[in-house]
């Protein structure tokens, strides 16, 4: 077990119609002008942005709006937001949307609070931010956990590089207003892709090659079982409030650091591999993770088959066979069967990508930062390993 620090300062207000408390809540932060940051026009057409604007007006809080955030949020939109905030003297950012919107808001917050450098440097990790505008979040999809995390991921259109910032409590949202009803209208694909993202945030921390804490393992395993159970319910009952609520809360707990206590931080190879897919081909993040996970797992499980066997037994009730290897492989297959059951891809072809050897090489070249880094801790992977995993996933 590794030593750890755990700090989760985000205030959570959870339940039906909690987003309508935003005006009174913002008064506590003494802000003078708020940027309401959101994604597609559906947030406007649904009336959600109007409801939030009305709450701020009634509370006497001035605001400006900026929509247009897309999945795999773009650096150009971040820079647009930075310019708008500087022009309008914005001192608080309210993200209304999914993980892409919240990540974009965090990046804008970094850019405004650190005008001495270009914000992209924080994602290249050549500079470290020393401040961030305060952020609040009203999630409309359960997936990324960004509403309680200290990280964000942005895509630079120049080279289509998808990169994450250094983890920092500076960008953790001050609060999140979580209303499961706001996720009712999500298409099935987005709902189930979000469930995969939640699972992988837990599994990245779970699959480590060290002795872990029993209590952390138990929390992680319970969280995974909860997501699997409720993801299946939402296939047939998209308006099931309890299932939506379980998934939404699981999304936050999966990425606020709780399931990483004592695990040394996690592996994160699957996320690094998927980031290149998202950057180059603009795929939905959770679906990309589902398409890659089985190939990654089969490539690395022999580094510690006992860990994968524990996963198989505790998550899918697979009996422990005579050797850990067969149990591990059965668990990997069970997870892929689950992905299929919720209509998620388990290969790049099913994701809609039929990649050439040259394209596979490009993905590995970019993921390895031009063959200058390795990824993963369960089994350390170099560029050739990455290339093999991408090829296995075809």
Automatic annotation (TrEMBL):
Q: Any keyword Protein biosynthesis?
A: no
Q: Which SUPFAM superfamilies match?
A: Dehydroquinate synthase-like (SSF56796)
Q: Which UniProt keywords apply?
A: Oxidoreductase
Q: Tell me, what is one Gene Ontology molecular-function annotation carried by this entry?
A: metal ion binding
Entry's CDD domains?
A: BDH
InterPro entries, from UniProt? ADH_Fe/GldA, ADH_Fe_C, ADH_Fe_CS, BDH-like
Please state what the protein is called: NADH-dependent butanol dehydrogenase A
Q: What organism does the UniProt record list as the source? A: Blautia obeum
Task: List the gene name.
Answer: bdhA
